[in-house]
Specification:
11-stranded mixed beta sheet, 8 helices, binds adenosine-5'-triphosphate, translocase, single chain, cell membrane, 35% helix, 230 residues
């Protein structure tokens, strides 16, 4: 279980508070108006933004200070690939930051790439891939890292609807295979309907406790109603 206890992040004149928990294995969409603090919530959990107050635990244990030591994989909108490295190297970084991959590492990288549909593309550079393929590389890295908590900050925002739906399905499959819990920021309520069990609404400086997805869409609070456009 992810537990966020009376946590607060202060950034200049912006403050985000959260007091909530997410059960293991849940698929959570993070929704809310632009600038409300959705990315800040993920940065808080990942350890990129220090807490001014409160504590964050995973399975009852306080998260280590260093983001690299947290049981987390994160995917950003730009899919954070290095342009000068090959697909295999970009994925291999998830295993060994110094890229000194053993033969076993290399075969695991190959298997992860094959799992996301990129078999045979190991030697390409990101510039030689389509947007959907780049997203798949980021997911292969997540698969390989095999961390129990997956944070996705609008990873497929640049993709068209059909491709986005395909990628969401793949995320769902990978999360189920690795038994990961995931939180995904989305600007698209349809994405939330498609892939989430619960929704965390972020608005007014607060990340609210998760509500079951069908429930929140059946009876949207004002902030979500505005966000849904009426
Ligand atoms: N480094 C910073 N210093 C001060 N304020 C910041 C900083 N980064 C972001 N903010 C502010 O914090 C607030 C929350 O930003 P955040 O990126 O978390 O929102 P968001 O809900 O993810 O927005 P969007 O949907 O537009 O991506 C915004 O008002 C933003 O202007």
């Amino acid at each position: 279980m992810l537990t966020i206890e009376n946590a607060r992040v202060d950034m200049g004149d912006f403050t985000l508070s959260a007091d909530l928990h997410v059960n293991r294995g849940e698929r959570v969409a993070v929704l809310g108006p632009s600038g409300a603090g959705k990315s800040t919530l993920l940065a808080m959990i990942a350890g990129f933004q220090p807490l001014s107050d409160g504590v964050i635990r995973w399975q009852g244990t306080v998260m280590p200070n260093d983001p690299a030591d947290r049981p987390i994989s994160m995917v950003f909108q730009d899919n954070n690939l290095f342009p000068h490295l090959t697909v295999a190297q970009n994925v291999g970084l998830g295993l060994r930051p110094d890229l000194r991959l053993t033969a076993e590492d290399t075969s695991r990288v190959g298997a992860a790439l094959a799992r996301v549909g990129l078999g045979g593309k190991e030697g390409r550079k990101p510039a030689q891939l389509s947007g959907g393929q780049i997203a798949r590389v980021a997911l292969a890295r997540v698969l390989l890292r095999d961390r129990p908590l997956l944070l996705l900050d609008e990873p497929f925002g640049a993709l068209g609807p059909a491709l986005r739906a395909e990628m969401l399905e793949l995320v769902g499959e990978l999360a189920a295979e690795t038994k990961a819990t995931f939180l995904m920021v989305s600007h698209n309520p349809e994405d939330a309907r498609l892939m989430s069990d619960e929704v965390i609404l972020v608005e007014g400086g607060t990340a609210h406790a998760p509500v079951p997805t069908p429930e929140i869409f059946a009876n949207p609070p004002d902030a979500l109603r505005d966000y849904l456009g009426g």
